[in-house]
Amino acid sequence: MWIILAGALAVLSPAKRFSVLLLTLATILGLFEDVLDWPAMVLLGAIAVIAWIRVENNARWIQLMSEAALVAIAIGLFVHFFPGFKNPRQVEDVQAGPLSLPFSFSYNFDKALIPFVLLICLPQLFRTKSAPPRLKILWLALLAAIPLLLYIAVKLGGLAVEPHWPEWLGSFMLANLFFVSLAEEAFFRGYLQQRLRQKGGPVAALLLTSLLFGVSHFPGGPLLMVFATFAGLIYGLAWQWSGRLWVATGIHFLFNMTHMLFFTYPALQH
């Protein structure tokens, strides 16, 4: 089921109808496997009705109200607000290495729905006008910022260098790429930064979106919020320069995997 759901996300941009077909299949399997319950089905039905209303009625107030409803739903999915999703744990209180804090992660069906919901609001969610840097070498600088930011975290005592290759790495990669990185980038870069850029320009959009991305990590404490803000600047520039959601998602995934494979994850155990 989870491979099918990941496949639906992978082809959402180039093959929307096929993606919806895969999502429908994943939903049916989710019901049979007790991952989804009836409140989740009611929510999916409501999303479908809102999508139909948007397609059938171009009145400005309908478009505004339906977009507000869909964004509210996306936020609810992001914070696991809605009942009916029984996201299965993949690992529980494990350590990536002896110096790492114990952590758990799940496959999140609700969070995986975010790109579908936001694509209804914004057809150019996955690809929009780019603003590439004048010097292509700045792309290398952007990539170099990933280990640099992690190294700064080491110097500040939040992380330590600790290479590891845990047995559950494959499950982590699947969850992190499709159900974390893509979902978060769809909301913060594909939707929010794009909408803010339309209203207030690229610089303000980049800064505000990065700040909000940092704030969204408040459960991890102030140090994580600061580093998430700077990471958000990296992802935001990747999106702004390329105009492609998958580029920002790839950079986000690369950051998370560099962190996982070469440093204490999610943080240093004191």
Topology (elements, then pairings):
Layout: H1 2-10, H2 16-32, H3 38-56, H4 60-78, E1 89-94, E2 103-106, H5 109-112, H6 114-121, H7 137-155, H8 169-200, H9 202-215, H10 222-242, H11 245-262
Antiparallel strand pairs: 1-2
Question: What is the ordering of alpha helices and beta strands?
Answer: HHHHEEHHHHHHH
Distance between the termini: 38 Å
Gyration radius, in Å:
19 Å
Total number of beta strands: 2
- Put simply, the count of helices is 11
- The best one-word shape is globular
- In the predicted model, the low-confidence regions spanning at least 5 consecutive residues are none
The main sheet orders its strands as 1-2
* Number of domain units: 1
Could you tell me the mean pLDDT?
97
Percent of residues in beta strands? under 5%
Structural class: mainly alpha
The major β-sheet equals: 2 strands, antiparallel
* Secondary structure: helix percent: 55-70%
Description:
The chain has 270 residues and is mostly helical. Strands 1-2 form a two-stranded antiparallel sheet. The protein has one domain (2-262). The chain is 67% helix and 4% strand. The mean pLDDT is 97. The longest helix has 32 residues, at 169-200. The chain is globular. The termini are far apart. Residues 168-257 form the CAAX prenyl protease 2/Lysostaphin resistance protein A-like domain. This is CAAX prenyl protease 2/Lysostaphin resistance protein A-like domain-containing protein. The chain crosses the membrane at residues 36-55, 67-85, 105-125, 137-156, 168-188, 200-216, 245-268. It comes from Candidatus Pantoea symbiotica. Keywords: Membrane, Transmembrane, Transmembrane helix.
